[in-house]
Amino acid sequence: MAANTTNCLKAFLVFLIVHLPFLVLSRCLEHKNPQSFNTLLSLEGLSKGQTDKNLPYLRQYLKRFGYLNYKETTLNGNYFDEVLESAVKLYQRNYHLKVTGKLDFDTVKKAANPRCGFPDIGLRFKSINNGDHTNNGDDDPDFLFIKNSSLYKFFDGNPKWPAEKTHLTYTFISAVHPIPQEDLSSASSQAFAEWTRNSKFTFAEVREGAVSDLRLGFFVGDHGDGHPFDGPLNVLAHAFAPTYGRLHLDGAEAWSLSPPPPGQIDIVWVTMHEIGHLLGLAHSSDPNAVMFAQVTPGVARRALTPDDIAGIQALYATP
Ligand SMILES: [Zn+2]
Ligand SMILES: [Zn+2]
């Protein structure tokens, strides 16, 4: 009996030693996991003058993607005020929705779609490790593009690669490997080829660890550049404006190299989009453009559109 009790105790201790780190880790991950974009669906029907416990999440979302300025409002308020209404209208205008300022079905549905992590407006996206690669002013967001008839956009200040730099090298550095390295390499070479066909740029892969202009890879959660990834869907990837050359894919996504089955994400589409940022294109308002911020799971997009091509040609038309 005593021996049995001792054995049970031993078994329990072994269980704890083996499982405790995982239990603690999973609790931490659970705790750190941010709200999903689907939270926005619960806000359908709300308009100015109403309150809701999830309005702070909408404020954070609109701030993150450039529609709200910290200085203008408190991010923690549960009250739907005028400033929030203006931000919703701006979002609706940018996505060609009916501009009502109300959280109608089309608006919350659109906002809940998976997307690129780069803001649509304001375009302040800098690495905490390197401040020299993008505009980093902290003025009010630039809303002027709304008046512009073209749908493609550049970053504030039009950062781009120097005129003589038309051949860019790239390498892979990943923290995780959700798909085989050969698949990432194949997806990237398809994506780069599409930009080569439609711009003055050529690209070549160099061995891992070699000096290169561009670095691509999979990361999860907080990966040191101040823009943590957020698990499946929501934000899928991000990249930096010229000439920083970093392209990060969220390793938590269900990536697909072949045309994706329902729920999976086309890695060629997303990589093509992020390369557009590396070259100096911001988000287009054209829903068919590769440079449109949102990506539809289960759908492949493998070619640049006239809007993307007009954008890259215009950016590099002058030295
Ligand atoms: Zn983007
Ligand atoms: Zn990153």
Automatic annotation (TrEMBL):
Q: Which UniProt keywords apply?
A: Hydrolase, Metal-binding, Metalloprotease, Protease, Signal, Zinc, Zymogen
Gene3D superfamilies, alphabetized: Collagenase (Catalytic Domain) (3.40.390.10)
Q: Does the keyword Cell membrane apply?
A: no
Q: Where is the signal peptide?
A: 1-26
Give the cofactors, semicolon-separated: Zn(2+)
Q: From which domain of life does this come?
A: Eukaryota
Q: Kindly list any coiled-coil regions of this protein.
A: none
Q: Which InterPro entries match?
A: M10A_MMP, MetalloPept_cat_dom_sf, Pept_M10_metallopeptidase, Pept_M10A, Pept_M10A_Zn_BS, Peptidase_Metallo, Peptidoglycan-bd-like, PGBD-like_sf
PROSITE patterns (alphabetical): CYSTEINE_SWITCH
Residue ranges annotated for the Peptidase metallopeptidase domain, each copy included: 157-318
One Pfam entry name: Peptidase_M10
Protein family membership: Belongs to the peptidase M10A family. Matrix metalloproteinases (MMPs) subfamily.
According to UniProt, the name of this protein is: Metalloendoproteinase 3-MMP
